[in-house]
TrEMBL record:
EC number(s) recorded for this UniProt protein: 4.3.3.7
Entry-linked Gene3D superfamilies: Aldolase class I
Signal peptide extent: none
SMART domains hit by this protein: DHDPS (SM01130)
Family of the protein in this entry: Belongs to the DapA family.
The protein's name: 4-hydroxy-tetrahydrodipicolinate synthase
Gene this chain is encoded by: dapA_4
Keyword Nucleotidyltransferase among record annotations: no
Source organism (scientific name): Roseisalinus antarcticus
Length: 295
């Protein structure tokens, strides 16, 4: 059974790129180590914030290799979902072989109006391919981008079909009744992670397993203070930071701010179709965040 410490504050870590557009693995590991040392309980690698769907299969595997070789694998969840089922199978098998604590799976996101049976068939291939490793599977519910929803009925059905394999859900829908419905399935057997830091107080009370957030890359110390200490002032700061970072282009904002945090502008690079902030935009963002975080 794969060892896992996937609880609490989980940052959806961005992927740095070099000037040629290849994943910058050295900077990636440096940022990951910084986050784990500054409030993050775990990391979500190669997710939406990591621009995984803008990378080739080989590039994603290179990032996975760098993460698994340099970081505590029990604290690493990796995105392995893909539009092509065969790619999702290969990435998830790679995650199992490398010893990741869990695989995070988007539904097959190109075709819209897909039935629960179709989504289940996709997951059945992925889960069966990693049966020997018993790699924990986390479902990534992000209907705004995927166009599909992991309905509570489907999730319950998958939990019955694959006992012990469906470990949790990252919910980026913002629909809190939905998230609470998932958390109540099978007597609370599912680890549910909303994507908004504003839910961390509720998570601290046991309603959720924690939070998987893009903006936790910048707010992790405050998020940790909320989840582990119940700090209401820290919650206000984390929520305010999220609001600033979510205004405009979220991922370019996060990567620009990460460049400031790491004192290295190379972290601001993004892959097409995203566009990095210009100097004026980056300076304005940095000033807004500095106002929120100053002592």
């Amino acid at each position: 059974m794969t060892e896992t410490d996937l609880k609490g504050v989980v940052a959806a870590i961005p992927t740095p790129f070099d000037a040629s557009g290849q994943p910058d693995l050295q900077r990636f590991v440096k940022l990951a180590e910084h986050l784990l040392a500054n409030g993050c309980d775990a990391l979500n690698v190669c997710g939406t914030t990591g621009e995984a769907t803008s990378m080739s299969l080989r590039q994603r595997q290179d990032v996975m290799q760098a993460a698994s070789a340099s970081l505590p694998k029990s604290k690493l969840m990796v995105g392995t979902g893909a539009a092509a089922t065969a790619d999702a199978v290969e990435l998830t098998k790679t995650a199992a072989e490398m010893g990741f604590a869990g695989a995070l799976l988007l539904p097959p996101f190109y075709y819209k109006g897909v039935s629960d049976d179709g989504i289940a068939a996709y997951l059945r291939e992925v889960i069966t391919a990693t049966e020997a490793s018993a790699l924990p599977i986390y479902l990534y519910n992000f209907p705004a981008l995927s166009g599909l929803t992991y309905t509570p009925e489907l999730v319950g059905r998958l939990m019955d079909e694959f006992p012990g394999r469906i470990r949790g859900v990252k919910d980026s829908s913002g629909d809190m009744p939905y998230a609470r419905a998932l958390a109540g399935l099978k007597d609370g057997a599912l680890d549910v992670f909303p994507s908004n830091e504003g839910t961390l107080s509720e998570a601290r009370g046991g309603a959720f397993a924690g939070c998987i957030s893009a903006t936790a890359t910048l707010s992790s110390p405050w998020c940790a203070a909320v989840f582990h200490k119940g700090d209401d002032a820290a919650l206000e700061t984390a929520v305010a930071m999220r609001k600033v970072l979510s205004t405009g282009a979220l991922i370019p904002n996060i990567k620009s701010a990460a460049g400031g945090m790491m004192d290295d502008d190379a972290y601001a690079r993004v892959r097409p179709p995203l566009v990095a902030l210009n100097e004026t935009e980056a300076a304005e963002l940095a000033a807004k965040l500095a106002t929120l975080t100053k002592a």
